[in-house]
Amino acid sequence: MKLILALALSAAAATPALRGAEPRRRLEALELLGAEESAKVEAEQEAARAAALAEAMAQLKEAQDMMAKAEALKAAAATAEAAPEAPKEPAAAEAPAEERVAVAAPAAPAAGDWEAQYKALEAAKAASEAAAAPAEPAEEPAEEPAAEPSEPAAEAAAEPAAEPSDAAAEPAAEAAPEASEAKPAEEPAAEPAAEDPPAEASATATAEATEPTTTERIATDVAELAAGGGDPAVAAEAAALVQKLQAELKEESALLAALAAKLDAMRGDAPAAKAETEPATTEPATTEPATTTTTAEKALTVATWNIAAINNNPFEYWIHSEDEAYNKLMSDVQAFISEPGDKDVRVKEVFTDAMWDELKEKMKGAGWAGVDDVDDLWQDDYRRRKIVSGFLKDAELGSKRLASMPDRVTNTIRSVDGKKMRPTVINCYEQEFSSLQDWWTQWKTFIFETEVTTKSGEAPKPVYGLLQPIKRSKYPAISMAEEAVSLPLQTLAGAIFDAILVHMMQNVAADTWQPLRTQLCEALNRKKDSRTLDILDQKYSDADIVFVQEAASSFVEAAKAHALGERYSIIAPASLDPKRDQNSLVLVKKGFGSFEEVDVLSSLSDAPVAAGDLLVVQNDEYVLASFHGDTNGLATIPITDAVLGKVGDKTLIFGLDANTYEAKRDGYQNAEEYQAHIVEKGLASQRGSTKDMDPKLYTTFNARTYLQPQLNKAVSYEERFTNVNVDRNPKDFVLFSTSLELVSTSRDNTAKTSSSSGEPKYDNEKMFPTLKFPSDHAITKVVLKAKN
Asked: Which residue intervals are annotated with compositional bias (Acidic residues) in the record (predicted)?
C-alpha cells in the first residue's frame, strides 16, 4: 500500500510538466494575431494550428502514458501482495510481504524529478516481482496489467475531445497520432495496450467507459489506506495530491479546449453556437455529436441590425437607466403633463405678447404673406390657450403638424460646415439657457439670422428659408385658410412649443435637466456610430455577414475607417440617399468573394420604398439582401417576392427590418402572416421553417415620452406593456433558402453576453435604446449550415 502512495505522489508530481507554460504563451500570442485572409497567411496559420495541437497533445499523451505505467505498477504490486510466499531460506528472517516490498523500494526522489521517479518505480516493480515470485508459476503478473492501461489511456485520450468545439475535434484527432510518434517509445513490449486508440473511437470510449479512471482508483486506494489504519499524515498528503492532480488535469483539458477555439478563430471558422436561452422557436437549434466537424466547417454566422433610433432628440424615447436623476426628471415631466393642475397656465404667460411682437416683425422682414392673419389667430386663439390641455395635448394641432413640421425641418440641420441645431430642449443643442428670455434671444437668432448650406455648391440660406408650406392634400386636418398662412403659423406654433418645453424643464428640474441632456446626447447621439461599430466589432466579430438598416451615409465612411473595415467589405447601395440618410448595407467578411449590386426596385414602381431602403448583391453562389420596410410593413411582402425573383439557383440570405406586428390590424403587416408567406415561397427564417412562429420573440420595445412633438403618440411609463402606441413587436427577420438549415439563433438588446450560455443576452423587461445599447431594434444573430 505504501507503493500506492508513492504512485500517487509521483503522478501528482508529474502534473507540473503537463501544465507547462507553452499552451498559455501560445494562447497569448494567438490573441495578438489578426485574422489575415490571404492564402499565404491562412496556410501558415493552418500549419501553426496543427503544430500547436500536436505539441499540446504530445504533452497530454506523455502524462497519460506515465499514468498508465503507474497503474500497471500498482497492479503488479497488488498481485505481488496477494501471491503465496516463496520458500524461505533457513537463514533469512521472516518478514511480511509488505515490509519486503518496502525494504526493496528505494527512497522516493524529489518532487518534480519525473525521470528519477520513473526509475524508482521501475526498481520498485522489479523488487516486488522478485519478492513475490511463487513456487508454481500459476499466472504471470505481467499479463494482467497489459489489459488495464488501455482503458485509462482510451479514457484520457477522449477527455480533450469532449471539451473543444466541433471545429477542433477532427484536427485534434489528427494531431494525436503525430504526438504519439513524436514521443520516444518507453513502454516495454508486454504493454501494447498503452498505445492510443483510434481517434474516431475516442468519443465511443468516453461514452461507454464505466470503470473508474486511474486517478479515481488512486483516490479510492488512498481512502482505503486511511480507513485501514495507515499513517494519517501520509494519507492526508496523498489525498491532497490526488485532488490537486484531478483539478490540474481538468484545467489542462480546459486549456486545450481554449487553445483549439483560438486556433479556430485564427482560421476564421465559426463554432456552432449554443441555442438561444429564450422560448424555443419552431425550428430548434440542432446539436451535433462531438466528432462531427461539418457543422463548424460549413457554418455561416449571420447578423442583422437596424441601427437607427434616436436621431436628434435624446428625450424622445423611454430608456432604461440606473440614473435616479434621469428617472425623476422623466417622472416629473410625465406628472406635469398628465396632471398639471395650477401649472396649466395660459400660453401668454410663457410665450409672451412681447415675444410675439418681436416674432411678428421678424416674419414680416422675411417677406412672408399672411402675418397679419396669424396675428388675429394669436389674439383670438393661441394666447388664450392653456399650455398643456390646450396646446401640448391638442390632438388636432398634432394632426395639422403645426408644431412637429417645423421641428422636423429645423431640429438638427446637416450643413456643409457641420450640424446646426435649433435652441430647444429636444435636441443636442450645446449652449445652455439661463432663463426663458435667454432661450428666446438664442431662438430668434438661429431662425432668422443663421445661414446654412445643405448641399455643396449651393448658396447659403437662412434657417427660416428651409420651412415648407403644409399642404392640405397631405394633411387634411389643416383648413384652407391655415394652409394659406402655414409658413408664419407653423413658425408661431413652433416658438410656442419650444417655449413651453423650456418653461416646463425649468419648473421641474432647473438644475439638472441640461447636464442630463448633455450626458444622454453623448451616449445616444454623438457617440452612437462609434458605439454601434464597437458592438459589431467586439461582440459579433464571428459573423461572416452583417446586414444593416437605416444607416446614415456618415456611418458608411466611419465603418470603412474603423477596425471593422479591415475585416469586412462595406457594401452600400449605388442609390445612397444622403438627404433622407437611411440606407441599407451589407457587410461581408473579406475573402468571402466579390459581389455586384442587383437592380430590383425598377420593377416595383408602386411599392412604398425609398432610395437606399433596399440593397441586393450577388456572386456566383449567394444572393444577399438587406431591407428596411415602411412603417406599416406593407412593402415587405412585395419586396420579398421581388428579391426572390432574382435568386435563381443561388442561395439567398436576407436580413431585414420587416416592420411586422404581433397584433393583426388593418393596414399593418402581421408577423405570423409574413412567416407563412415566406414558407409558402420556399424560404425559412430564424423564426422557423414552418408557418407557425412565436410572435412574442420581440425585437423592438420602445415608447415615446412626453418630451417630443407628437404627443398623441406619448405613453406613460406605467403603460409601457399595454398601450397600443408601444412598439413591442417581432419586426426583424433573417430569411434563407431551404438548402440551409438553422443551427442556432439569438437576440440582443444589451450588448452583453449571457454568463450561463455564452450567447448574446436579451432582456424581455428592458425598453431600448439604452445608454449602452444605441438602437431601438435588437440584433438578430443566426448560425446556418448546409443541409448536405
From this structure: 137-146
Beta bridge partners of 741: 785
Give the count of alpha carbons within 13 A of 377, CB side only.
Answer: 16
Residue 541 corresponds to which cell in the numbers above? Answer: 466579430
User: 165-213: per-residue pLDDT in tens?
Assistant: 343 333 333 333 333 333 344 444 444 333 444 444 444 444 444 455 5
Domains, the chain, with CATH or none:
18-84+94-210+256-267 (no CATH), 294-312+528-786 (3.60.10.10), 324-523 (no CATH)
**Model confidence band, residue 271 (pLDDT cutoffs 50, 70, 90):** very low
Nearest to 648 by CA among 675, 673, 625, 620: 620
Look up residue 98 and give its amino acid: E
The rounded distance, in Å, linking the Cα atoms of 127 and 116 is 16
CB atoms within 10 A of CB 160: 27
Query: Structure pTM?
Result: 0.61
pLDDT digits (tens, 9 = 90+) for 586-645: 999 998 889 999 999 887 767 678 878 999 999 999 999 999 999 899 999 999 999 999
The answer to whether 621 and 593 have CB atoms below 8 angstroms apart is: yes
Answer for the pair 615, 586: CB distance below 8 angstroms, yes or no. Answer: yes
What are the two backbone dihedrals, phi and then psi, of residue 692, each rounded to the nearest 5 degrees?
Answer: -85, 145
Q: Is 546 exposed, middle or buried (0-12, 13-18, 19+ CB in 10 A)?
A: buried
Quick one: DSSP state of residue 523?
Answer: I
Helix (H) or strand (E) holding 571: strand 568-571
CA-nearest of 609, 725, 604, 756 to 661 is: 725
Q: What are phi and psi of 529, to 5 degrees?
A: -65, -45
